[in-house]
Amino acid sequence: IIAFISGLLILAELIFLSKKLFRERTINIITAILGLYVHHRFIFSIAPVSEMYYNLFILTGSILLISWLKESKNWQLATTSFCWFLASTTRYEGCYFSLVLLLFLTYQCFISHKISLKLLIINAFWLCIFPIFWIVDSWIFYGNLESLTITKQQAHWAGLTYYQIFTNNVLTRSALEILFTPLILGFVSNPSLQIIKNFGNWNIYQIK
Description:
By secondary structure, the chain is mainly α. The protein has helices at 2-22, 25-37, 39-46, 50-71, 74-90, 94-110, 117-142, 152-158, 162-167, 170-180, 182-197. It is globular, with a radius of gyration of 19 Å. α1 (2-22) packs parallel to α4 (50-71).
């Protein structure tokens, strides 16, 4: 039941996110239709797996982040960081979102001077606390950081080669997912190209 409700909330958030980004009724309708038939959302809404809650937290944080960029209310940014902290506890991909946001906020604090150091520290706490805990816990429990990916013992038991260990690495799988998933590739490449194109003209990120 919780997963099903989460699936409905994700669909509602997709539509709301579309409204905030584009403010076009046609695009909102198209988003709703596509959201209904995205197989991941459909599968996750009937199966109690972590991806459902990860998607929910990421979308909630994204909506709040866009709101902060437009309205510049500090509670929106802090709540974004908290949502992505929760996302990181359910799926490791959430750490990537946290890292990008942390780099962006660091730039906004020390280069653009658009946010205070206090606000940066508050958000850095939520964005970094779980990755740090994960690393420290792995080091204390295993004595090394192998548990962040596949361990040598797991590879030995599964009969894997070092090549297979590399291809099953978290970072490698993530890179391949980005490369071979057109939707994700578009989300990653388009902002990256815009940043390169507008490098030095950071007014595109100015808080209004």
